[in-house]
Write a structure and sequence with these properties.
Layout (H helix, E strand, L loop, with lengths): L3 E8 L14 H11 L4 H10 L1 E8 L10 H21 L4 E3 L1 E2 L5 H13 L6 E3 L3 E3 L1 E6 L7 H10 L3 E3 L24 H15 L2 H4 L5 E3 L6 H12 L12 H8 E4 L6 H11 L4 E2 L9 H10 L4 H15 L12
Parallel strand pairs: 1-2, 2-3, 4-5, 5-8, 8-9, 9-10, 10-11
Antiparallel strand pairs: 6-7
Helix pairs in contact: 2-11, 3-4, 4-5
């Protein structure tokens, strides 16, 4: 299937962030680091071979979220976004951008997002998990009331925020002691991001901002499969409940999920059964995953052709209203 739009596709500028998600296999990480900095011929050739018409690029995790100094985070976010805008301008029919934001300073993050959307033409923001402030052991999650003005700006701009994983804070890693093989995409990413998402839902954020849109990768970080039980038990929490609607309502109305890094047909079908195919978007998670593997699976997965077209590009065209006119139309 040609004409696909992918939106969890990562890049890096080493001069801005040297901290990368770690793999046990150092040779694999070396190749990933090399591919992250390539926004030229090799990446475009991989896109062509995989039938990807357009990629929304985002600074790899933890990116700006791992910068402990708030003032430096503001400066580096602007530098990263300006450099990405230059690359997008060189290939506007193939690349778009997600803003990297200094969530250490919520007001500055809101201002930078508005600049990126209105001046640089970006399509939303990539939030690489919680944000460190002042030290690596302190993390802020975005359900905190200090972020309410930021979320108000996101809703007003009408763009989505993609909530991407990162590993848990050092002080929260005790459950994994002696098991480094469980870190990253194997398991800790999922637990961390699903928990962060539930914090947003249960905080009442989507009651305050009902038009707010958040994207989750990896077919929803297990939430489509667990949301019934979470709702079923959370409903018994009485006065602890701070939200107005069932959590399932927020999942179905405020969230999209992508296929990034989860190339499994039964899981895709289960996700569509819970959320509907209109809420699923195509992605590969390059270069942490293979564009070709993602494409070979998706193009032949046992789903209807109508759902394949929607997930491949028409859902993205509906969500991202500022895509170039021709993008996703050569399927």
């Amino acid at each position: 299937m040609s004409g696909k739009i992918a939106l969890e596709e990562h890049f890096n500028f080493p001069e801005l962030t040297n901290e990368l998600p770690q793999y046990v296999n150092p040779e694999m990480m070396k190749d990933i680091a090399r591919r992250l900095v390539d926004l030229g011929a090799e990446r475009l050739a991989e896109m062509d071979a995989a039938g990807i018409d357009y990629s929304l690029l985002s600074l790899t995790a933890p990116g700006i979220q791992g910068e402990t100094d708030p003032q430096r985070a503001v400066t580096r976010a602007r530098q990263a976004n300006d450099k990405l805008a230059d690359f997008v301008a060189a290939n506007p029919d193939r690349y778009g951008g997600f803003a990297a934001l200094p969530m250490q300073d919520p007001a500055a993050a809101a201002t930078e997002l508005e600049r990126c959307v209105n001046e640089l033409g970006f399509h939303g923001a990539m939030l690489n998990g919680f944000t460190n402030i002042n030290d690596a052991n302190t993390g802020w999650y975005y359900d905190h009331e200090r972020y309410l003005p930021f979320w108000e700006r996101v809703e007003a701009l009408g763009v989505p925020a993609y909530l991407h994983p990162r590993d848990p804070l050092p002080g929260n890693q005790g459950a994994y002691e002696g098991h480094p093989e469980l870190f990253g995409a194997v398991w800790t990413f999922t637990v961390e991001t699903a928990t962060h998402t539930l914090r947003l839902m249960t905080s009442g954020l989507f009651d305050r901002f009902p038009k707010l849109t958040v994207i989750l990768g990896h077919l929803g970080e297990t939430l489509p499969f667990n949301i019934w039980r979470i709702d079923h038990r959370a409903a018994r929490m009485g006065d602890l409940i701070k939200y107005e609607k069932p959590l399932t309502h927020y999942l179905l109305n405020n969230f999209y999920v992508t296929t990034s890094g989860n190339f499994h047909t039964q899981t895709l079908n289960a996700t569509m059964a819970e959320m509907g195919s209109d809420r699923v978007l195509y992605s590969s998670d390059y270069p942490y995953e293979s564009m070709r593997e993602a494409s070979d699976w998706f193009d032949t997965a046992a789903i209807s052709d109508n759902d394949r077209i929607k997930i491949g590009h028409t859902n993205a065209r509906r969500l991202f209203t500022k895509l170039p006119e021709r993008v996703g139309k050569r399927a």
